[in-house]
Amino acid sequence: MRISRQARWCRRPASSRHARAALEEIWKTIYTVVLLTITAVTGATGRNRMAAQAGHSAVMTCPHRTRATMVTWKISPKIGGPCTLGFRADQNLVNRTNCSDSVKSEFKPEQFYALEIQQVGMADEGNYSCELVNQEGNFHEMYQLTVLVPPRLSLYCENHSNPVCEAAAGRPAAEISWVPENNSTTEIDSHDNGTVTVLSRFTAHSTNRKTVTCKVYHATLNETMSTYCSSCKHPLCVQHSKSCLALCSSTMTGISDPRKIAAGAMQLS
């Protein structure tokens, strides 16, 4: 009986519990309404990182909203002054301020008022933002554009024996590896225009009659190149070729008959 009385004594009135639950529901409703109001008034903000290859086109879109009354693209490039493109639906009017001819927009709703940068160059790198206004509020979409530059590739023999792989004037810097794997030295040269040249030297002690492969990895390409370099310094050897290797091989093996040397070169060429 004591336990029963104590339980009844600790039990709160039903009316108090109902009042507290009702108050919590009211606060949840108010909180939800406030969030929806903030979203409707200020819109949603998106931030996107975008990369485009130099010489190609880049396309960016506004927030996916309908019945826009006004659309404004604002461009802040790293090089040059700001550019603004504005569109008013009620007048079907487009205004351009300090924008180059490569910056285009037809402000079509079905294309989400897309902005196109034709023939992207280093000067186009920067921040792009679209503000769209409709009856629901203001909505924003922001982009950070990075321009990629494919490197110029070359593979050659230095000092008649050492293979050298070069990825010149790329952005970002390329990565170079060798097959077979061996010690290599790498030089990196940064240029004023933001591009980087990477030069890798294959440092095997001897590469005679041995093919080596250079692999170049970059955001715009993956390339594989192969060559073989000879340390042969035969006086008749003008180019690094199989004929050159034949001349070297004959010299090292003691063959002096020109006819045999020529026959060996023809077999390998």
Automatic annotation (TrEMBL):
A GO BP entry: regulation of neuroinflammatory response
Keywords associated with the record: Disulfide bond, Glycoprotein, Membrane, Receptor, Transmembrane, Transmembrane helix
Membrane topology recorded in Swiss-Prot or TrEMBL: Single-pass membrane protein
Residue ranges occupied by any Ig-like domain in the UniProt entry: 39-146, 165-226
Pfam families xref list: C2-set_2 (PF08205), V-set (PF07686)
Subcellular location: Membrane
GO cellular component annotations of the record: external side of plasma membrane
Single GO MF annotation: signaling receptor activity
InterPro entries: CD200R, CD80_C2-set, Ig-like_dom, Ig-like_dom_sf, Ig-like_fold, Ig_sub, Ig_V-set
Family that this chain belongs to: Belongs to the CD200R family.
Stored PANTHER family: CELL SURFACE GLYCOPROTEIN CD200 RECEPTOR 2 (PTHR21462:SF2), CELL SURFACE GLYCOPROTEIN OX2 RECEPTOR PRECURSOR (PTHR21462)
Protein name per Swiss-Prot or TrEMBL: Cell surface glycoprotein CD200 receptor 1-B-like
Organism expressing this protein natively: Aythya fuligula
Name of encoding gene: LOC116492438
